Amino acid sequence: MVIVVLLWLAAVATGVWAIWPVAASSSSPAPAAPPEPLPAPVSLEGVLAGQVIRREITCGQYRRALERLAIRDDERHPMSVPDDSAG
């Protein structure tokens, strides 16, 4: 019977020892680290998306800017579609 009581005391002591550091750290929280800065956008579309998120431009302005980017891209790098009759 003494051995059973000693084993129960050992189990309780082990549980308290395992939980004790968690309880001590939660009573005195460490200062929160500042959030890491977001990486800079690498494309103009990324810049525009960031401006919409920060509400610097409206959704309509965003759409018009993307339309102008698509037109500019089409003028600078036109796509040529292969001919289907060559098959």
In words, what does this structure look like?
It is a single chain. This protein has 87 residues and is mainly α. It contains three helices and no strands. It has helices at 2-27, 44-53, 59-76. Helix 2 packs antiparallel against helix 3.
Q: How would you classify the helix and strand content by structural class? A: mainly alpha
Number of helices: 3
Instruction: Summarize the main sheet.
Output: none
Shape: elongated
Low-confidence stretches: none
Share of residues in strands: under 5%
Radius of gyration: 32 Å
How do the helices and strands follow one another from N- to C-terminus? HHH
**What is the residue-mean pLDDT, rounded to a whole number?**
83
Number of strands: 0
Q: Estimate percent helicity.
A: 55-70%
Amino-to-carboxy terminus distance:
92 Å
Q: What are its keywords?
A:
single chain, 87 residues, mainly alpha, 3 helices, 62% helix, elongated
Question: Topology of this protein?
Answer:
Blueprint: H1 2-27, H2 44-53, H3 59-76
Quick structural overview:
With 87 residues, the chain is mainly α. The protein contains 3 helices and no strands.
